[in-house]
Design goal:
alpha+beta
Length: about 525
């Protein structure tokens, strides 16, 4: 889980308008976000007897993540128990955290205000207290004890690793496919949630203890696999089918595949399974793109002053992997993702930014209108297989070899979409605060990536004119993605930071200027 617990002061203890048709009693104050954890515990204790395991009466909830999207309501994720210290390097992996999710429907919100009060929560009886989910539909309020999830109904079954559970058969088939040996059996299994987006998806690490017997005796080994639970089982099937195509295409040409090997799909659970990225060299652990693709101080031999290091080899590997995806020829079902869709999203985000930070209200709307006009005018030479959300956090490195993960957004799109998306997220956060040398680092890193990408697609049969067009259009997609980055503080209900927002809007202007 990620995100900050800090929220805008406007959400703390404010008095909001009453629900339609209702008149609040004089002096009744609407509930603030900081009060939601205590209310959630109260609802759970009133509705669930006995309480879920580990939820002792004195247990506290600590806000870990707040997310608000217009039309989708508010989600608050809390950790159960005292906040944890990060595990020391090399220490045993701690038990996974316990999460409680609080969701508030769009109809129960008005701008930065929650429409009901703590008294409402106490007076209205909860409904649907089933399997860790408690709801008060009349207030648009619900509490879920992970892994219970009303919109991700197969999550609990995907985390259940009793050897009699149906999931074990699917994991065993995946392990055999990974090891190319049908003799292996699971003797124990452990599931650990790695990344969870309530109501949408959950990434799970499966640690398997395997055994096989032969005339030479019994053999044991350990194996890690990854699974992802999707809210829509049909989407899981489509993602798995596309991943199989992409993996097979790269195996046939004799090159390293750019994605983890897909190992199967449990259709009833909406669960896709894939290999864990690992190395035969014990010291070579996988690194995330967020670790690798960021400024680091490094001092060369004989250099008196440390410099910000640009990871050129890794950036070239990323560019090559993206070029291989775009030229893979994989057939993807469904409509293409068009520039018109990006224009619509940019406009929505600009409106949200303007509401969240009135000091810059006019600027984002004006920029979004101009950007939308130019995006609508784009005419790409062709649509190609695209990732749809290509950024550093979607990459894993083994040395300089790179793997692309999180393939949920695979689509047919203008290749410039992925290029612009990546460049937007490649920017270090220090750029928003005008920290020294960050501009130079980003300019050098972007140039390294773009040069390598252009060379890679030309080697794979794309002519120079087409590659130039991709680069020019990428600047507009980059601007559209920067609107997404600018809207993050509004989505997380953080306090507005006008200076940071102005810096991002300045980057958007520069992208649009360069695209002329």
């Amino acid at each position: 889980m990620s995100g900050r617990a800090a929220v805008s002061p406007g959400f703390r203890g404010v008095t909001g308008p009453a629900p339609a048709g209702a008149t609040p009693p004089a002096g009744v104050r609407r509930v603030g976000i900081e009060a939601l954890p205590a209310l959630a515990l109260r609802v759970l204790r009133a509705a669930l007897q006995p309480l879920p395991a580990g939820m002792a009466d004195g247990t506290g909830l600590f806000i870990r993540y707040v997310h608000r999207k217009p039309g989708r309501g508010l989600t608050v994720t809390c950790a159960v128990g005292a906040p944890r210290e990060p595990a020391a390097p090399g220490s045993a992996r701690p038990a996974p955290p316990r999460w409680i999710t609080i969701s508030i429907d769009e109809g129960a919100l008005e701008g930065a205000r929650i429409r009901f009060s703590a008294q409402d929560i106490q007076e209205v009886p909860p409904e649907g207290a089933v399997a860790g989910c408690v709801a008060i539909p009349s207030l648009g309020f619900a509490v879920q004890d992970f892994p219970s999830d009303r919109r991700l109904s197969s999550l609990a079954a995907s985390l259940s690793t009793d050897l009699q559970d149906p999931l074990i058969g699917q994991l065993e088939l995946a392990a055999r496919a990974c090891l190319l040996d049908p003799a292996w059996h699971i003797r124990r299994a452990r599931a650990e949630p790695v990344r969870y987006k309530p109501g949408s998806r959950c990434v799970i690490r499966y640690e398997l203890g395997l055994e096989k017997r032969s005339v030479n005796g019994a053999f044991r080994r350990e194996l890690s696999l990854f699974g992802k639970v999707h809210g829509d089982p049909q989407r899981a099937l489509a993602v798995h089918a596309a991943a199989e195509q992409l993996y097979a295409a790269h195996r046939q040409d004799g090159s390293h595949p750019i994605i983890p090997r897909p190992l199967g799909v449990a259709e009833a659970l909406g669960l896709t399974l894939s290999e864990a990225i690992s190395s035969d060299i014990p010291q070579e652990a996988p690194r995330t793109g967020l670790e690798v693709l960021r400024p680091r101080l490094r001092r060369g031999v004989g250099e008196p002053v440390a410099r910000l290091h640009i990871p050129s080899g890794e950036l070239r590997a990323v560019a090559l992997a993206l070029a291989r995806l775009h030229t893979s020829g994989v057939s993807l079902p469904g409509p293409s993702r068009t520039a018109a869709k990006e224009a619509l999203r940019a406009g929505e985000r600009a409106a949200l930014i303007a509401t969240h930070c009135p000091l810059v209200a006019d600027s984002p709307r004006r920029l979004a209108r101009e950007l939308a006009s130019r995006l609508h005018a784009l005419r790409p030479e062709a649509y190609a297989p695209a990732h749809g959300g290509f950024k550093p956090s979607r990459l894993l490195f083994l040395g300089e070899r790179v793997c692309i993960v999180d393939l949920d957004g695979l689509c047919r799109a203008d290749p410039a979409l992925d290029v612009g998306y990546f460049l937007a997220y490649l920017r270090p956060s220090g750029l928003w605060y005008r920290r020294p040398a960050m501009r130079g680092w980003f300019a050098g890193a972007a140039a390294t990536f773009l040069t390598a990408y252009r060379q890679a697609i030309i080697r794979r049969g794309i002519d120079d004119s087409t590659s130039y067009g991709i680069r020019k259009r990428a600047r507009l997609y980059e601007a559209a993605t920067l609107f997404k980055i600018a809207a993050r503080r509004a989505h997380r209900l953080n306090s507005p930071r006008p200076a940071e927002l102005e810096a991002i809007l300045g980057e958007i202007r520069a992208c649009m200027h360069d695209a002329h």
